[in-house]
Amino acid sequence: MEFVSNLQQRELVAEEILTNKELIIDYDRRRNSNREALGKLKKDLSKEKKVWVNMGDMFIKMPKPNVETMIKKDQETLDSEIADIRQVMKEKVVELEKLEGGDGSKSRAFQLKGMTP
Amino acid sequence: MATTTTTTTGLRDITKMERIGAHSHIHGLGLTDNLEARPSGQGMVGQAKARRAAGVILKLIEEGNYAGRAILMAGAPGSGKTAIAMGMAQSLGADVPFTMLAASEIFSLEMSKTEALTQAFRRSIGVRIKEESEIIEGEVVEIQIDRSTTGLGQKSGKLTLKTTEMETIYDLGAKMIEALNKEKVMAGDVITIDKASGRITKLGRSFTRARDYDAMGSDTKFVQCPEGELQKRKEVVHTVSLHEMDVINSRSQGFLALFSGDTGEIKSEVRDQINTKVSEWREEGKAEIVPGVLFIDEVHVLDIECFSFLNRALEDALAPVVIMASNRGITTIRGTNYKSPHGLPVDLLERLLIISTGPYSEPEIKQILGIRCDEEDVQMTEDAKDILTRIGMETSLRYAIHLITASSFVAKKRKASAIDVADIKKVYSLFLDEKRSVQMLKEYQNQYMYNEVEMADREPAIGNGSGMNASA
Questions:
Q1: Which one of B63, B297, B389, B406 has the lowest number of neighbouring Cβ atoms within 10 Å?
Q2: Higher pLDDT, B460 or A30
Q3: Structural domain tally of chain B?
């Protein structure tokens, strides 16, 4: 019975890791389209005062500076969100290694801070 | 750089080529999960007690709370002390530093004894550090470069990258276009771009673009289209030994001294600096100390100065586990007139845990000889093995092992596939073992030079030189 609950636990943690992985991909997709948009605003639409933005399922015409700050803010939240998820994932990987019978030493080194700032 | 582990690849598929040495058949200690010694496993045979003891110590080392201690392996020659040490090294894994040192190595003209010992100590302590970088990794879908009609002026362009999950367009500046041209990147290549430096690396061509073209270079590498997000974070963990850090920082030529081996003496200021830096990193959470294992073979060769140095060095905060091996009984400590067990001073002995190895039994010797035959890729008949085992019992295991190679050569000469009794007999008569050599000396010692025992009752002017009848 203990074996089964351990197996259950393992599946649970592994599932969480995979979900987080998927989440990072989704966030990165949005990050990239935001980046494309910022590039477009700076290059091709540099003369415009107001631009069309797609919000949800609506197109709205908004002043360009507003749009720019909005996207930039979104980028920042995305970046910090991705960093958070990566940290959580590392902890989960250590947890999973322990559940699989290791002592977590293999993946624990990845908790270190990087040498390059 | 001892080892690298990456997040992206789990396995290292490099096969290690090793020369067939005296202990190359050993792959571990041959213990079960609860530290019971298997009668034979991973190349180890017999010595169950010593192996279990070694296994217990291994567990302690792995848990990392056994630094700064020392172990002595005591036993007769050829009873498997070095074999057990090798087994420990093998089962520690690639990430824990293991240094092997024959005690005589420290007597060198270029380096003082304590310097050599300090280097050995620092070689056995690893520092684990992590490097991280942001990279963009993807398959090139399209490159579009706009040049002005005159050929002058700024170039601009667009690069479309994709992974299995997503696709995006990057705007390119003049610098990036140049880099892409230099790497000859084209649609279908899988590339990585380092975000910090902007360096482009070509990983290969995507499988989806693979066609059966004849006109394709043999070095074209096909890789899968990358998965996941485009902008990835790559983290690499290295284990570097303190000694390597010393060498890199001690000279103007830097890390090249690591390869030439010509490190010379390292100033203690450099070591102090490294120590402070490392402890700083540790406090900042940037580094992790990995205490390793230092094995000193034939430890009785060390002299009293080295022993007192060892005493002090073991107390250092950054000390590895020291394993020593000695085959001496009660003998004089080198550099003094005092006698002591194992040739080690008593104050050092007190700090040691002693593992002793006993002589092998007959079936064990036979098994070891069998393992060695496999290792050296030699066939041997059962009768020959029996005879060799007998030789091993009566002379020494080492002598019997030596005979394997020699007799395989003899067997090859007579074009036989396996070694037979006759081959063993032949090499046995060709090469003397220690006992027969002593016998020979006793019979013919008169004819040898500098024979002090018999010199006194010999006529002085026989022609062996005249200045040698120095014996009283």
A1: B63
A2: A30
A3: 3
What is the pLDDT, as a whole number, of residue A42?
86
**Structure-token match 């009768």, residue found:** B383
CA-based nearest residue in chain A for residue B172: A39
Q: Which CATH architecture has domain A2-103?
A: Orthogonal Bundle (1.10)
Q: Which of A112, A113, A116 to mutate to test the interface with B (most CBs of B within 10 A)?
A: A112
Give contacts of A25 with chain B, Cβ < 8 Å.
165-166, 228-229
Please report the sign of the dihedral spanned by the C-alpha atoms of residue B271, residue B272, residue B277, residue B282.
Answer: positive
What mean pLDDT comes out for the span B206-212? 79
CB contact under 8 A, A115 and B230: no
pLDDT tens track for B422-442: 888 888 888 888 888 888 888
Q: Chain B contacts of A116, Cβ < 8 Å?
A: 131-133
Q: Which of B80-94, B346-360, B399-413 has the lowest mean pLDDT?
A: B80-94
Of B306, B334, B357, the residue at which a domain comes to its end is B357
* B274-331 per-position pLDDT tens digit: 999 999 998 988 888 888 888 898 888 888 888 988 888 888 877 888 889 888 888 8
Amino acid at B139: E
ipTM: 0.82
How far off is chain B from A59, nearest CA to CA, in Å?
22
- Residue of B130, B168, B286 with shortest CB distance to A110: B130
DSSP 3-state assignment of B4? strand
Q: Would B92 be classed as within a structural domain?
A: yes
CA pair distance B456, B194, nearest whole angstrom = 83
**Domain CATH number, residue B157:** 2.40.50.360
| Distance in Å, alpha carbon of A60 to nearest chain B alpha carbon | 24
Instruction: Determine the average pLDDT of the residues in B92-112.
Output: 82
**Contact call for A32 and B166, based on CB within 8 A:** yes
Over residues B339-344, the mean pLDDT reads 88
Select from A25, A43, A114 the Cβ nearest to the Cβ of B130: A114
Q: Which residues of B touch A97 (CB under 8 A)?
A: none
Q: Indicate if B17 and B55 belong to the same structural domain.
A: yes
User: Residue A113: which of B169, B230, B284 has the nearest Cβ?
Assistant: B284
Other C-beta atoms lying within 10 Å of the C-beta of residue B45: 26
Query: Using the 8-state DSSP alphabet, how is residue B112 labeled?
Result: -
- Interface touch B228/A110, C-beta < 8 Å: no
String of DSSP letters for B278-312: HHHHHHHTSEEEEE-EEEEESGGGSBHHHHHHHHH
Distances from the Cα of B345 to the Cα of B113, B302, B312, B388, B469, angstroms:
18, 11, 14, 39, 38
Q: A50: distance to nearest CA of chain B, Å? A: 23
Give the residue, B63 or A33, on which the prediction is more confident.
Answer: A33
Residue B162 and residue B226 in contact, taking contact as beta carbons nearer than 8 Å: no
**What domain range includes position B73?**
3-124+292-357
